[in-house]
């Protein structure tokens, strides 16, 4: 006796890739909006939910790419064996799944230990990019669709590389090397902005600048690098005179910078190269959307067309939203 009838089996088999792609997109949306809340909340339910989303997102996207690849040869039979395959549009979804595997800007790792596994993520990058490329090469020859797929493949690859670099930059060895390289000849940080009592202001911008300055000093504790005597004396003098409320604000700002450094793509975005790459990625997605919109789509399944437009719209929106959240986060 079968628990699941053949009708439901066939229905799931036909729509499996669609469900997985939409599920992957839903998980990305959840990560983008839940991740910033974790920085300011100790709610255990929120932490558990984010942890589930974080782990599930990669599994679902990886599973979806595998399903697209495994069904690549079955699609022609399912769609009637016609020369023009109405199901070939699923090959375009592989770059979107790479985009999902790259993860949102608001979270790259859930814990510090995840950063130490950046080599494993690099291996995953090679495997998943190869799988997506194989899906593309196996797809039926449609030059217009190929152009759209290539245009989407570029931002997908960029996002995946960004996440790998973010994990590497948050690893202990890389942090230590970077911090040591920032030390001057007298074991002191090379900074252009020095704070004295006359520099302290209630203005929020000044407070953030000072918080960033102290973050540059105190982050050395993460990698067991000691302070210089001057820095130790400077911090003692500063925090012995500051009001409790202002000290708490400074500590919160420092912790916010620390969180962004360890668990987001802030380091990759807050630089000239990062901004240029991000703009190029957005332009590539827009160009892919334009080329897809002008395709002759009458041979494709209506459900696949709708899902593809959803992926394009969500991809553009989430890229902009995630960047704005990270750039203007506290």
TrEMBL record:
TM regions (residue ranges): 17-36, 48-69, 271-293, 305-328
Keyword set, alphabetical order: Membrane, Transmembrane, Transmembrane helix
UniProt lineage: Eukaryota, Viridiplantae, Streptophyta, Embryophyta, Tracheophyta
Residue ranges constituting the DUF4220 domain according to the UniProt record: 51-330
PANTHER family: OS01G0798800 PROTEIN-RELATED (PTHR31325)
Pfam families: DUF4220 (PF13968)
Cross-referenced InterPro entries: DUF4220
Protein's name according to its UniProt entry: DUF4220 domain-containing protein
């Amino acid at each position: 006796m079968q628990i699941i009838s053949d009708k439901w089996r066939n229905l799931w088999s036909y729509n499996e890739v669609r469900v997985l792609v939409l599920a992957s997109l839903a998980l990305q949306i959840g990560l983008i909006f839940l991740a910033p809340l974790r920085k300011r909340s100790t709610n255990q339910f929120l932490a558990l939910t984010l942890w589930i989303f974080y782990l599930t997102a990669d599994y679902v996207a990886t599973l979806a790419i595998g399903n697209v690849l495994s069904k690549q040869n079955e699609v022609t039979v399912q769609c009637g064996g016609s020369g023009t395959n109405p199901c070939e549009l699923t090959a375009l979804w592989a770059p979107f799944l790479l985009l999902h595997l790259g993860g949102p800007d608001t979270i790259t790792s859930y814990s510090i230990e995840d950063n130490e596994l950046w080599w494993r993520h690099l291996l995953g990058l090679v495997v998943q990019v190869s799988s997506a490329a194989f899906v593309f090469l196996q797809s039926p020859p449609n030059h217009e669709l190929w152009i759209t797929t290539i245009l989407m493949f570029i931002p997908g690859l960029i996002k995946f590389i960004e996440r790998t670099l973010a994990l590497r930059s948050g690893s202990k060895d890389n942090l230590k090397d970077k911090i040591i390289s920032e030390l001057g000849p007298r074991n002191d940080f090379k900074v252009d902005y020095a704070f004295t009592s006359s520099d302290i202001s209630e203005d929020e911008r000044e407070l953030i600048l000072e918080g960033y300055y102290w973050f540059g000093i105190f982050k050395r504790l993460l990698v067991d690098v000691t302070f210089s005597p001057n820095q130790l004396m400077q911090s003692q003098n500063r925090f012995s005179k500051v009001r409790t409320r202002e000290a708490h604000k400074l500590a919160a700002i420092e912790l916010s910078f620390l969180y962004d450094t360890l668990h987001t793509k802030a380091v990759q975005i807050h630089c000239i190269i990062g901004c240029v790459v991000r703009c190029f990625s957005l332009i590539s997605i827009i160009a892919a959307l334009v080329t897809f919109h002008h395709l002759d789509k009458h041979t494709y399944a209506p459900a696949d067309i709708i899902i593809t437009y959803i992926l394009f719209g969500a991809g553009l929106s989430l890229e902009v939203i995630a960047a704005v959240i990270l750039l203007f986060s506290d």
